[in-house]
Amino acid sequence: MSNLRVIGAVAGAMMIAAPALANTNNTAEAPSTSVSSGQVVRQASAMTAGGIGSRIGSFLSPQVLVGQGADPNSVAFIMDESLGSGMAAGGGDGRLGVWVSGGWSQIEDELNSTAFDGNLYNVLVGGDYQFNDRFLGGVALGYESGDIDTSYNTGNIESDGFTIAPYAGYVLNRYLTLDVSGGYTFADYDMVRNPAAGAPVTGSTEGDRWFLGGNLNGYYAINRVTIGGRLGYLYTKEEQDSFTESNGTVIGQNDISIGQFRVGGTVGYSLGKVEPYVTGTYVYDVQQEKITVAPGQAQPQNDRSGLDVGGGIRFSLSDRVTGGFEGTTHVGRDDFNSTSLTGNLRIKF
After folding, report:
1. Could you tell me which of 103, 46, 45, 53 has the C-alpha nearest to residue 230?
2. Which of 77, 97, 168, 259 is the most exposed place for a label (fewest CB within 10 A)?
């Protein structure tokens, strides 16, 4: 009998000493990273890779358009310098370029059990070099931040990240170009949630994110009308470290893997030094992070596809300074939507 008492006492002590484990299926009790991280990471990596991809495209597209007989002056002014022509071909003059871009996205999930809304921001600075009339290589450095209110747990998550990303572009022929980019982001997350009873619960963790993307781009010019198409894939993987919340709840490592297939196009009209355009891109999540909630909570659709639609303008301030602005909105998913604005400026030397 005494042995049973000893065993019972030891088991009780072990239960008291053991840390609490998170019940992440009940989103009202889950840390913010357990529910919203997948969609936040998806949007953040798309902003970074999209900014770099647009930069490469703006450099390579004039070469193929001029090769089709488009007006070389307006194309070069609007979209960037032509590879292998003018300054770019003369003794290295014009081969080096530096650029900066900035982006903002407002993201929202409207389902009660997973609801959140907030803002993501990023800034990219880069430099690239034209090695010959077909090949471009460069590297970009970036900073991102986020501030997301997580309604499902009456909380908030703030994030910061730093990125390094090499990239390259190549002209395949008079209609097609290819671009690739890959990079690493170190991210930091601080979060708070407010249980129905008790004090606010806080936590912090870090994440290592890797991404790799590539695009096949096509261009065609009809007088002042320019038509562009893009077929691409972006893979992102982030590993968020385990951590312990302020109430002693242990949150395990969170691994996020996302693969996105994108196909879209733009149609623009040249007005000399300015070109307005419309754009649309179909997005399909080949690999996604499905959200699971507790029984009795509203079940998310975890739908895989959506559509980015919008427009923008490209412009030239001189033969060495070009830029542009673009606005898009993401539609077609049952509960998730986003609105994004981006801008960029490039100087060649």
Report:
1. 53
2. 259
Question: In this predicted model, what pLDDT tens digit does every residue of 222-267 receive, in sequence order?
Answer: 888 889 999 999 999 999 999 999 999 999 999 999 999 999 999 9
CA-to-CA dists, residue 83 to 51, 63, 90, 291, 334, angstroms: 20, 5, 11, 46, 43
Determine the Cα–Cα distance for residues 105 and 340; give it in Å rounded to an integer.
4
pLDDT of 66 > 70? The answer is: no
Which of 299, 304, 181, 294 has its CA nearest to residue 232? 181
Report whether 87 contacts 349 (CB < 8 A): no
Length of the chain: 349
Concatenating the DSSP letter of every residue in 4-45 gives: HHHHHHHHHHHHHHSPPB--TTSGGGS-HHHHSHHHHHHHHH
Q: Which residues lie below 8 Å from residue 286, measured CB to CB, with a gap of 6+? A: 233, 259, 260, 261, 304
- Please tell me the distance from the alpha carbon of residue 184 to that of residue 207, in angstroms, as a whole number: 11
Q: Which single residue is written with the structure tokens 């019972």?
A: 8
The C-alpha torsion from 84 through 85 and 90 to 96, rounded to 10°, is -70
Collapsing DSSP to helix, strand or coil, 345 comes out as strand
Element (H, E) at 73: helix 72-79
Residues 6+ away with beta carbon under 8 Å from 204: 188, 189, 190, 191, 243
pLDDT in tens, 169-190: 998 888 889 999 999 999 999 9
Q: Tell me the angle at which helices 37-67 and 72-79 cross, rounded to the nearest 10 degrees.
A: 160
Q: How far apart are CA 82 and CA 30, in angstroms?
A: 53
Q: What gap in Å lies between CA 32 and CA 34, rounded to an integer?
A: 5
For residue 106, the tally of other CB atoms under 10 A from its CB is: 15
Ranked by mean pLDDT, which of 9-23, 68-82, 177-191, 293-307 comes out on top? Answer: 177-191
